[in-house]
Each structure stands twice: as structure tokens, then as C-alpha cells.
Specification:
The protein is built from 5 helices and 15 strands. With 220 residues, the chain is α/β, with parallel strands linked by helices. The strands form 3 sheets. The chain has a 6-stranded mixed beta sheet. β14 and β15 form a beta hairpin. α1 runs antiparallel to α3. The longest helix is centred in the last third of the chain and has 29 residues. About 4% of the residues have low confidence.
């Protein structure tokens, strides 16, 4: 029950459109999916696999969110909108994580045993992002919208692009305490794009200087 209360609190804190606990209980599909998951996980732990999967599949039908009952999720999870979210069987997720719509926490299809990712605490995963494989995404990490993450992401880092590139965005003392305080999933610096832009500007400046030299020689 404590985890469910924390999940409800997470919605109130991170969704500015939410006005009351009443709305969370009756109107938020992400919250409904988490409550159903916690029930199905109880049966899964007690080896009642059929009823656990039945609850999971019924929840997917009604919410569009599929959380395997074998996954291990912490408390204070916020699934925003949630349509198309898929969380695999061996996924592990820490506390206070935020998941947007269209996210997949899945496997690569070639692994056995631990096949799905492990997310630390206060992780934000943007819309449409895919995290595929049995590696760790560190505490306070941010996965930008549309990123495809295929390798480990350190603590306090951001992953951008397809395939995702890891960017250090600051050292630990300078970061905010949790993903709830920084919900921006779009305005994320892409270091490769920035360097290409700088290189392009440098080439343009050099070309302008060459043009001026050519004009000077023609006039001289």
C-alpha cells in the first residue's frame, strides 16, 4: 500500500494537469497500470503465474500499458499518458522514475536470464525511447525522447540519439535531487550535432576569408 500511495503522490507532484487524488484514482491510466502490476507481481512472487499474466494482459487491454508481473519496480513511479509502454519481465526500476508514452524497456532477443535493463533512482525516460538489453541506466539519468539506448548510461548523464550517445550533463553536486524537478525530455544537447555545427561555422568563416582574398587579388 505504501508504494501505491507514493505512486499517487508522484502523479500529483509531476503532472501540472492533476488537481486531486480523486483524479489520479479514476482518470490516470498509468496509475491504474501500476496498481494492477503490484497485484500481479504479488501473485507472480507466489508462483501463481497464470493469474499474474492474466491480470497483466487485462491491464494492457484497458490501459495500453504492458508491465510484465515479473518486473521489479520501486515506488514513486510516474507513467505519463502511458499508451504503448512495454516493460519486460526482468526489468528492474528504482524509486521516483518517470516514464513517458511509447517507451520500451525490452530485450535484444539474443540474451537469456537477465534480458532487460535496470534503471536506477530518479531516471527520466522520454517519449518513444527504447532501452534494450541487460545493462544499467544510472541514478538521475535522462533518456531523451526518441533515443534508442543499447549500452550502459552512467549516473547523472543524458543519452541522446539513435543509437544513443551518452552525454555528461554535470557533476553530482550541481544536479537537482530528482527527475521530478526536471521533466524536460526534449531540450537536450546533442554533442555530435553541436560539434558539427561548430565545424560548419568555421568552414563558412574560412570560405568568407578566402573570398575576400580573391577579391583583393582581382582588384590589385
Amino acid at each position: 500500500m505504501g508504494k501505491i500511495i507514493n505512486d499517487m503522490r508522484a502523479v500529483r507532484e509531476r503532472d501540472p494537469a492533476c488537481r486531486s487524488n480523486f483524479e489520479v484514482i479514476f482518470l490516470y491510466s498509468g496509475f491504474h497500470a501500476l496498481v494492477s502490476y503490484r497485484l500481479s507481481h504479488f501473485f507472480y512472487k507466489h508462483k501463481r503465474y497464470f493469474i499474474a499474466r492474466l491480470i497483466s494482459q487485462l491491464t494492457r487491454f484497458f490501459t495500453g500499458i504492458e508491465i510484465h508481473p515479473g518486473a521489479r519496480l520501486g515506488s514513486g513511479i510516474f507513467i505519463d499518458h502511458g499508451s504503448g509502454v512495454v516493460i519486460g519481465e526482468t526489468t528492474e526500476m528504482g524509486d521516483n522514475c518517470t516514464i513517458y508514452q511509447g517507451v520500451t524497456l525490452g530485450g535484444t532477443g539474443k540474451d537469456t536470464g537477465k534480458r532487460h535493463p535496470t534503471l536506477g533512482n530518479n531516471v527520466l525516460v522520454g517519449s518513444g525511447a527504447k532501452i534494450l538489453g541487460p545493462f544499467r541506466v544510472g541514478d538521475h539519468a535522462k533518456i531523451a525522447a526518441g533515443a534508442v539506448v543499447l549500452s550502459e548510461v552512467p549516473d547523472y548523464a543524458t543519452a541522446v540519439g539513435v543509437p544513443a550517445r551518452v552525454v555528461r550533463v554535470g557533476c553530482e553536486p550541481l544536479m537537482r535531487k530528482g527527475a521530478a524537478e526536471d521533466m524536460d525530455q526534449i531540450h537536450v544537447a546533442d554533442p555530435v550535432a553541436l560539434e558539427l555545427y561548430k565545424l560548419s561555422r568555421k568552414i563558412e568563416e574560412m570560405q568568407e576569408k578566402l573570398d575576400l582574398l580573391e577579391q583583393a587579388e582581382e582588384q590589385g
